[in-house]
Design brief:
By secondary structure, the chain is α/β, with parallel strands linked by helices. Helix content is about 30%, strand content about 30%. About 35% of the residues are buried.
Length: about 250
């Protein structure tokens, strides 16, 4: 299989709602392209010309529109986000207390339960057309875990999977020592993905005291900084994430 081109964008520090809206716009753009392709396959004469010209692929001799893959990285100001199957009671602060702590809160359309995003955390949002890779959500989640596991290995940290729990853990099989270092929650519509992963790098882990992370009782959270005993360069960590994304997904970031 040829390597897929993926447009990379580092959004820097960005409010959660703004990043969500941006992802949604990219997803909807790709859905419009897919709708146009279906119309053409069904022999319909009327195809939205805007769709045909709005995709960002470089011009080729092939007149057909094509979906566009993206990989977004960012940091968010402090925010708790709740997945569509999550439970608000896993937030241990009242709305007033959230305001006092200057923590935003959002109900989202991703999978998973409650998690925290904040500064010093690498949040990755792949907007991928899985029909260009494989139509298997389970495999996609395992690959997100794999790119994080490979990144942690470069810091001498052994990241692992925990049976029945999405994300990346350290010592998941040692009761009382299991700790989560990366949360994962995605949405997929017509095989177009959004949302993604949150890797704790130099994250202030005190915020996690205000939630039951991912709805999982009596398990800790950790970060690269906590595991190593010192802060690491965030830009360097981002470059490792990008390199391992290319490796795991057989893609080229452009």
């Amino acid at each position: 299989m040829d390597k897929q081109n993926v447009i990379f964008k580092d959004l820097g520090i960005i409010e959660y709602q703004e990043a969500w809206d941006y992802q949604e716009g990219l997803l909807q753009e790709n859905l419009r392209v897919k709708a146009a392709l279906r119309a053409m396959e069904n022999g319909q004469k009327s195809v939205d010309n805007e769709v045909l010209t709005s995709n960002l692929q470089p011009p080729t001799s092939n007149p057909l529109p094509s979906t566009t893959n993206y990989f977004l990285l960012c940091e968010h100001p402090p925010v708790f986000t709740l997945g569509k199957s999550g439970h608000k009671e896993n937030v241990l602060l009242s709305d007033q207390e959230l305001a006092e702590h200057q923590i935003s809160f959002f109900r989202t359309n991703r999978g998973g339960d409650i998690t925290f995003h904040g500064l010093g955390q690498i949040v990755g949002y792949p907007i991928l057309d899985l029909e260009k890779y494989y139509t298997d959500i389970g495999k996609y989640l395992r690959n997100l875990e794999e790119l994080v596991i490979l990144t942690l290995a470069e810091y001498g940290i052994r990241g692992e999977r925990s049976k029945g729990e999405t994300g990346v853990w350290i010592d998941p099989e040692i009761p009382g020592k299991e700790r989560k270092i990366c949360a994962i929650g995605v949405r997929c519509s017509r095989w177009i993905t959004m949302h993604g992963f949150a890797l704790n790098v130099n994250t202030d882990l005190g915020y996690f005291d205000h939630i039951i992370p991912c709805g999982i009782q009596n398990k800790q959270v950790t970060s690269i900084q906590k595991e190593l005993g010192f802060a690491v360069d965030l830009e360097e960590a981002k470059s490792k994430v990008c390199k391992n994304f290319e490796k795991v997904f057989g893609s080229v970031l452009v």
